[in-house]
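Fold this complex.
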Amino acid sequence: MIEVRIHGRGGQGNVVAAYLLATAAINEGWHAQAFPAFGAERRGAPVVAFVRLNHTPIKRRSQVLAPDYLIIQDEALMNVPSITDGLKSGGNILLNAANSRDQYPTENNVDNSNLITLPATHLAQQYLGRPVPNTALLSAFLKLTDLLPHSSLIQSLEERFTGAVLEKNIALIEAAAETIPANLWKQNANA
Amino acid sequence: MKTNKRAVTADMLVHLRKNQPRFEGIESGHRACLGCGEALAARLVTEAAGPEVMIANATGCLEIFTTPWPESAWRLPWMHSLFENTGAIAAGMEAALKAQGKPTKVLAFGGDGATFDIGFQALSGMLERGHNVLYVCFDNEAYMNTGIQRSSSTPHAAMTTTSPPGSERMGKRHLKKNILTIVAAHQIPYAATTSVAYASDLRKKVRRAMEIEGPTFLQIHSPCPLGWGHDSAHSIKVARLAVQTGLFPVIELERSELIGSMPIRHPRPVTDYLKLQQRFRHLFNKDDARAVEELAHIQALADHNIKHYCLDGEGMDALDSDGADTVRRGGMRWA
Amino acid sequence: MLKALEGSQAIAQTVALCRPQVVAAYPITPQTHIVENIAKLVADGKMDCELVSVESEFSAASLVLGAASAGSRTYTASASQGILLMSEVLYNIAGLRVPMVLTCANRAISAPLSIWNDQQDSMAVRDAGWIQLYCADNQEAVDTTIQAYRIAEATELPVMVCMDGFTLTHTLEPIDIPEQDMVDSYLPPFNFKRALDPANPTSVGTLVSPDFYSEARHSHHHALLDAADEIIAADNDWKQLSGRSAGGLLSVDGPDDARIGILTLGSVFGTLSEARDEYTELPPTKLIKLRSYRPFPVDALRHACAGLTELIVLERAISPGYGGIVSAEVQMALSGKPDMPRIHSFAVGLGGRDIPLDIYRKLHAAIKVPEPRAFSIIDVEPEKLPVEDHGIESANTDSNQQRSIS
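Structure:
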């Protein structure tokens, strides 16, 4: 079973990101589960969502305590001491940040070698005209892990959005994928 | 002298009247007190509304005295759920009938406690959502079913078991809530007051309210001999005096605008009304300065009503008999 | 076909398949997504009903009561404070024997204010006279919702479908939404014999004196007991059609020779089930999933507990000043059974506290005691308690006895 924890802020589409990823997986024949760490969050507050992907039915309802991957939608959240809690050894972090991995300070005991950054907010501003980084990060996540085909994310977007929002998001995820090396985390994904 | 016409005798009139196919939604033989204003008002409302309705009835005297299981005085589909949800029950009935493609006018019955106080929220919701319901409030100005406790409809200075007069109090300290204008402020198409003392006015208003699509509201002043402390034989007289003094204005509002009022040609002093009722007896102690002051206060309230609602009229007061004999089964539609 | 759906979305689509004519609701977390999805289905012309957005839960319950009494199939949903605000109406609906379906998106009760999941809300209206069915996952909630209409209309009793708030309502997972034809063939149109009708006027909700009240309560009680047969039949028939059972009155999962059992209501079942696969070193354990809490299936429970020496009752609510609510009933149901297991009563996951897999190990450890403890909240964290409350958790049985002696 692959477990993903997504950190973000209210308004960044954290739950939507989790739902999109699980939906893409379910459409590809996986068993998946996505749910928020429910809170009474207002815009801007730190929020968490969880995704589980598996080849057999998932029955557990507990929160993801030991994720294989972290997707962090806001760079500033890296300063939260508990942000990487439970990350499996060899686990990876996808971070929305303008700086590259090498420039990213190694505060908070984060192993730089496990971290990939994507300037997702910048890309989202460029393609959507809004600072919503979630779909760009998902696209990068799939490219890095090769867990699901790129087309599955498009299908999952099509189930949720229509019209200009859909078209702009598809353009965004194409662009995001291009900036990221393929299959870098693949071995981990298959482990 | 020859004539082709048969003389119309008084006997014939009585015969005609008795054989008129009048519909009564509530049967005699129920367990209301002698002189109950509410029982009479409910009968008049159901006569005028006709048989093609269903009723949501709040907890209260009307519910209790009409339906001691396994008996019922109702000839209409009737439902009592709770004290404070009558607006919502009626709204649900209406929504169901609408969904089923049936005629939808529903009657909701509540006393002043169920309407002014505990059921006010459900009533407001029903009005705001525009359900096709005629809500009738039988206003006897206190919680009579539980033994005469004050409600927000109880008039100023009236004695109830929870607003007793004493060395520190002169009955209810607060004013009677002006429910009609609050209800009308929902911008409903029709809201009116009437009184059991004016049966044809009451029937006309019911028929009018029934014909209007959307929420309508009728507040019927209904004396309670037990709670008000008056002779059971004088219910109509007392109710009429409430109107004639200006203490209970009989008015009509459309979309919150005043469109009609029953004029008072010769306003009576409020003491004519108050002195018939034990609930105001503490106001007639001439040695008590507070009593004198309260009487003046109540007279001022009546004077204010007369001025505010333009109740002044000229000539003779109308006799309330016009239209009384035209009520037939189904009310207006067959009249 | 399995589709990726959020629990609430699945429930809304399922409710639409059941063709209610009147829906009334008032928003409360975590029920909101259900009603929002219904509103969207109505707005898009995919659901034909009178949707009434009322001014309170009290009016939501009242409105569907009025509508059902006038002969329409109805639906409402709520949670937590909303269920409590409805409680007077819930008793009234059941006492009037008016069939309807309500989804309770289970949530804790204030104070302290918590928007998160436990089952204190539905437990608080346990005695309202409704059938209560608890769902372990979203598929069960979908199937139970459809079955609930059939059960309600066959028994003339209202049915509360309890699904854990957030844990189910806000979880996206693969869910099968049945075809309309299948639901139509299973659920005939609502025909309420006692519907209010001007052509045949009846009086409903009359005053009942002591001469008849006991008889009315007796009939209501027995109607609920008798509903057990319909709950089983409805599930069996649904399984014939869909291939899925939603769990009958209760279901047992685990080896026949297990000596330890854990009884749960709702979604914690799945977590325990995976934990059992994970902690293979622990003794064989039966998981008993209690679906029908009202009517309470005494016979089925006694049968399910055959061979057990230890029974853990794990619940998501408490009766302060006593302890376990379900466990007390289980104790009574099993009492007098010659080989009655020892009963261990625990609450867990109150106010949304996460229930990790590790709870399974903790439960196994906690029952290794000479005498079962009366009750405890197994996941309470003593270091967070005020000093004066320290030690109470570890010694509640003893201290209770001491108090009663002194």
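DSSP finds twelve helices and eight strands in chain B.
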